[in-house]
């Protein structure tokens, strides 16, 4: 699965949570780049890949040392 780092204007709740804890957002590809509108569509494949990224991030975070933030 390919990925890229992007800067997004999207704020969502992550914008406010970032003041008190590290945050990130996972974006899933949407057909024709449409978002937050009725014709928005993301394939099962892309949604599954996004869920996999989230799962792996949670599993990695679970292994972090709470005091040093290292594995």
From TrEMBL:
Protein name listed in UniProt: N-carbamoyl-L-amino-acid hydrolase
